[in-house]
Amino acid sequence: MEKRELIYEGKAKRVYATDQIGQVIHEFKDEATAFDGKKRGIIEGKGRVNAQMSDIIFRYLERRGIRTHHIKLLSENEILTWWLEMIPVEIIVRNYAAGSLAKRLGLPERTEMRSPLVEFYYKSDELGDPMLSREHVRELGLADEEQMDEMAAIALKVNDILRPYFEERGLVLADFKLEFGLREGRLYLGDEFSPDVCRLWDTETGEVMDKDRFRQDLGKVEETYAEVLRRIGEEETGITASVFISPKRGILDPAGQAALGALKSLGFDEVGEVRIGKYITLRLPGMEAERVMDRVREMCERLLANPIIEDYRIEIEE
Amino acid sequence: MRFGVVVFPGSNCEADCYHVINKVLREDVEYVWHQETYVSGYDCLVLPGGFSYGDYLRCGAIARFSPVMDAVSSFAREGGLVIGICNGFQILLEAGLLPGAMLRNTSLHFICRFVNLRVENSSTPWTNRAAPGQVLRIPIAHNEGNYVVDRDTHRRMVEEGRIILRYCDGEGKVSEEANPNGALDNIAGICNEGFNVFGLMPHPERASEEILGSADGLVIWESIMAYHAERG
Q: Residue A163 above 60 pLDDT?
């Protein structure tokens, strides 16, 4: 896979062409904006979190029958996707009133909706992303009736899948934004799914776990993004590397000798030698198998083992 | 003379070092936080004892990647005086500023008591105030002080006089009985090739006032000052 020219640069992403027809690379940036670009900043590690979270969520949705643009995670902050002809309509699903909706309808923040709301917004920076009725969409020719129905239906299905998914991970999915596009005449879910495009609240404490921390200067922004990824990445399968570290041959191992003495005194005379080391497991979500060995070896050389006194052995498991 | 005492999360001897430099030696001293990326204006940096980063993984293994360690390394490369005491010594080993590594004490016990140390080389920035072969009484307090190094490096260190302190008995005899932790060749303190980096397991800052049972640690502090005064 070869990364070619930059096709598009948005507020949080760059999209590059590749040497594969119809496939593009989304590179996620650490830059953050809010209030139509009036507030700007950097959230360190955000690009990495958003790419990896999108990878996990899109794969989860794919497994449950949602057609998405996702192909695979390429690096810690890059995703390979199908190229979509994007429909300039943002679909918002709301389970709770928050932000602009609470303000517009005069509802107290965090009022639960009787049933999930689906709203359409015009993706236009000049106009400030105004809300659209279905008539507006038709009038502007942004999408046809059938596509509108399909997008709304998929959005609700995504909500049905993700609400319990986040609930299990201690997070309330208050609202989220989706974007769709067309590929070979079919509708695909595109864009990303990350704390940038949804509202998440901690189930226990009610704490804000999304971009509102940046919008409202609540602090601990980086930590929160990392925590969300940690929660959803938990049981995500990936490559596991086991590192066995043992005292080098010829190096005295006081703990091993003490255990040997104890074993002998219990009558285990057959034991000739005991060496006590460390066992470390590393989970490497989204890492390419062929790179794992080299990377883990480097981790051992630089930090995990001290080559002066320790030997190490690596086992990789997919 | 101006000292900097580097503080890592988990250091716990920095205040003792600061106290001795400030109140006993009456020299300038400042704390240097582990997140500093630039150090300047110091004549000697002290890496104090403690349990930096909880001693997780290996003693000193994580501290050596602190931002400040790049600055400490360049300071040492330019000939600046760096002394690592106990955990500070372990950090210098992990950082590769001194050769070798630490294993657990052979007894598997944390040992906290006075030991006798023979000064093996008294013409260094760290020991010039000691008589050749002088015995210093200074306490140790560690669980991993069992020094090891490969044979070739060890031989070279002996030839170059870079073994500065050895564990000995009260009469200055270096013996297995006088070795508290199993360290190779009774090694308690070593220098790098340039003699400007010194690592030692004993705590001179805990033995720099008579009221603490020994003031032998002053030999080391005063040597540093004498060296600095002479060098200008």
A: yes
Same domain, A45 and A178: yes
Rounded-to-integer distance, Cα B179 and Cα A186, Å:
78
ipTM: 0.80
CB contact under 8 A, B146 and A247: no
Task: Write out the residues of chain B at the interface with chain A, using a CB-CB cutoff of 8 A.
Answer: 57-58, 61-62, 65, 94, 100-101, 103-108, 146, 148-150, 182
Phi, psi at B186, each rounded to 5°: 55, 30
pLDDT per residue over B46-101, tens digit each? 999 999 999 999 999 999 999 999 999 999 999 999 999 999 999 999 999 999 99
DSSP letter (8 states) at residue B124: S
Please report the domains of chain B, with CATH numbers, ordered by start residue. Answer: 2-231 (3.40.50.880)
Residue carrying structure tokens 């950097």: A42
Question: Do A224 and A250 share a structural domain?
Answer: no
> Are the CB atoms for B177 and B167 separated by under 8 Å?
no
* Catalytic residue list contains B86: yes
Round to whole Å and give the CA distance between A195 and B125.
Answer: 56
Q: CA-based Rg of chain A, rounded to a whole angstrom? A: 25
Rounded to whole angstroms, the Cα distance separating B74 from A274 reads 41
Contact check, Cβ <8 Å, A252/B146: yes
> Which of A274, A280, A306 to probe the B interface (max B CBs under 10 A)?
A306
Classify residue B26 as left (phi > 0), alpha (psi -120 to 50) or beta: left
A181 with A292, same domain: the answer is no
Place of tokens 């998929």: A154
- Tokens of residue A212, six digits: 């509102």
* Contact criterion met (CB below 8 Å) for A62 and A153: no
Strands in A70-75's sheet, in edge-to-edge order, are: A3-9, A13-18, A23-28, A78-82, A70-75
Query: Is A308's CB within 8 Å of B149's CB?
Result: yes
Sign of the Cα pseudo-torsion (B138, B153, B122, B94, in order): negative
> Which structure tokens are listed for A66?
């949602």
CA–CA min distance A3, chain B (Å): 33
Range of the domain at A304: 239-317
- The alpha-helical segments, DSSP class H, found in chain A are 46-63, 99-105, 134-140, 145-168, 212-215, 221-233, 254-265, 289-299
Same-domain check for residues A210 and A181: yes
pLDDT tens digits, A92-126 = 999 999 988 888 889 999 999 999 999 999 999 88
Residue B203 annotated in active site: yes
> A108 is written with which tokens?
């107290």
CB contact under 8 A, B146 and A254: yes
Q: CB under 8 Å to A95, separation ≥6 — which residues? A: A112, A113, A116, A159, A163, A172, A173, A174, A175
